[in-house]
What we know:
The complex is a heterodimer of chains A (577) and B (177). With 577 residues, chain A is of the alpha/beta class. Chain A folds into 3 domains: 17-188, Rossmann fold (3-Layer(aba) Sandwich); 207-361, Rossmann fold (3-Layer(aba) Sandwich), CATH 3.40.50; 386-554, Thiamin diphosphate (ThDP)-binding fold, Pyr/PP domains (Rossmann fold, 3-Layer(aba) Sandwich), CATH 3.40.50.970. In chain A, the strands form 4 sheets. In chain A, strands 3-2-4-5-7-6 form a 6-stranded parallel β-sheet, sandwiched between helices. In chain A, helix 1 packs across helix 2, helix 3 (67-81) runs parallel beside helix 5 and helix 11 (237-247) packs parallel to helix 14 (338-345). Chain B contains 6 helices and 9 strands; from the N terminus they run βαββαββααββαββα. In chain B, strand 6 (117-121) and strand 7 form a beta hairpin. The model of chain B has no long low-confidence stretch (mean pLDDT 94). Chain A: It comes from Flaviramulus basaltis.
Amino acid sequence: MNTQTAKKTKEVINKTERITGSEAIIKCLIAEGVDILYGYPGGAIMPVYDELYKYQDKIHHVLTRHEQGATHAAQGYARISGKVGVAMATSGPGATNLVTGIADAQIDSTPMVCITGQVFSHLLGSDAFQETDIVGISTPVTKWNHQVTKASEIPEVLAKAFYIAKSGRPGPVLIDITKDAQVSELDFEYKKCTGIRSYIPVPKTNPDKVKAAAELINSAKKPMIVWGQGVILGQAENELKAVIEKAGIPSAWTILGASAIPTSHPLNIGMVGMHGNYAPNKLTNECDVLIAIGMRFDDRVTGSLNTYAKQAKIIHFDIDPAEIDKNVKTDVAVIGDSKDSLAKLLPLLKETSHDSWLKEFKDLYAIEFEKVIKDDITPTKEGLTMGEVIRQINIETKGNAAIVSDVGQHQMIACRYADFNITKSNITSGGLGTMGFALPAAIGAKMAAPEREVVAIIGDGGYQMTIQELGTIFQQKVPVKIVVLNNEFLGMVRQWQQLFFDKRYASTEMTNPNFVAIAEGYYIKARKVVKREELAEAVKEMIASKDSYFLEVCVEKEGNVFPMIPSGASVSDVRLS
Amino acid sequence: MNEDIKTFTISIYTENNIGLLNRISAIFQRRHINIESLTTSQSEIEGVNRFVIVVNITEEQAKKIVGQFEKQIEVIRAFYHTDEETIYQESCMFKIKSNLLFEEPQIQNIIKESNTRIVTVNKEFFVLEKSGRRNEIESLRRDLNVFGIMQFVRSGRIAVTKDEMKVTEMLLAFNNQ
């Protein structure tokens, strides 16, 4: 570790004392404000767990039932609170089981620190028991990683880990600590990291670029905003709202941007992307200025790049310079923190409204409502729909719940139809599309924000990928509400098979167990709904429950999610059926 | 931006840390970019390493990949340059049977004309070293190949840029914060 690279500060949290590396790890976590961490013990991390035992009044360790669950719980914790989530595991299989969650956090910019135990440093490279090169394995999916082989390095490396995880564009950091570094002693002194010379987390906003952006926006006849998670991560919700309202711009969101502006806001025109709303997708190719804020033009958002908003001038606000011109060429790029950039933009904007332009969105919404939404959320035909379940949850929670969704059809339906009044309320695996994310992520979210109603909405496929975390919910008494929308299919894959593979349903049909019995096996209150008449009452009972509650809703087997932009098609070719 | 595939020299200034090479090579691998050559050494700044990597890609790819390098925590700055914007050299060594030096007078002429340096001579073999452009080294290799080469090795490209590299300024700015 090169000690010159991290800036020294005068703020000394602890006076020097002689302690073990393991105790130092715990003290570092406490100094960073960690109150809860998720993990699973094993040989190479046992000294740290021994210290956790002594510090259990200060720091709460949650034993998940699988290390993947620990990472997703840490992600859920981070996404709802904005704080760094922490996961811990032993070496070898413990460490490799973290990788999916780390990759998920990397692509969704979630601040997370993972601590893994490692074999004694003299055994490194000897194929020792439970030795694996987790630093090598995790390199492409971490913002930073590092192996510690000396106890004396622990405070500085962990300080850097937290600083890197949460600063700039957040991301996961993995610190691998050999067992000898855990058991040997050091003179402990903790200084928070405040800067690293090779790392510029927040590039300074260039006022000329903000001015150029403002001029384009002021001259636009048909401006449209697409915001992403950058607004939430940058805590720029109020600034965005002020910009939208002053310039009267119809504004859409990416899946991870959901909830930054309330669903009910008159200028909120819905979600863009493969299963987003009809109007914002269609009109992406009609607007004259497209203002992208804290989003990265993911292929699920843009469809074919060759036909994406070619008529429009593009303004891109982002904190990460590598995102500029990566997928879509911009006319004006404003690199910097979203809160700061939008605050600087606001006074330069003319007060405007674009009523006839906004009406185009409303008109297309009316078409989408008639052809898709009405039958999704208030169906009259037999067979429960996913959409009507979300609608009931909206009614019972008044749009104040945090919705944690998994991956697939139910996820798209939840993001499309859930009402969001409060920011940081849509917790889902966006970029990586990790099935199994929701159940453990809901645990982390509920523990970080016990005052919030947290509802996990999961498909029958994804649920069975991390179903073991029911054990964590039971042991920790986490009052999350779990809704499984059971169509006895891997629904999204089945939908593609129906539309693009001539209904050849290869390995997508599922013979499911008795989910209610499984939940009850973990002493979680459980109920199954098969009829429409039972739904409202069941959702009401679930939301009213003070304890965790499992609700299985048997929905129609072959329901499809529309609108849909077929893979590789243009956003304006969005289909309603 | 020009879409033609060209040779670019990528210079990456980094902290001297284990694992950084892995991080950098993973960025190439993920995008299916073949590395023509890679050299790493101390740079002009104490404690700062410099990677010099040669790749054949489009300028658009070069720009994007440099963005990915700069995103790495321990990368201080990264740049891409065309051949015209750099002064570059490679170095090579030849091991040849000693008797040829005396039996084939032509070899001595080749050594003299190409400004090749004799590093060592002993009873069994002698070793030649030359620095220069790839074509000079290739032509020397072809000339010597006729007589039989026991071993040949060529280094990756090393290059300095005609433009100033503003890395020191960036580090000073950090220290003065």
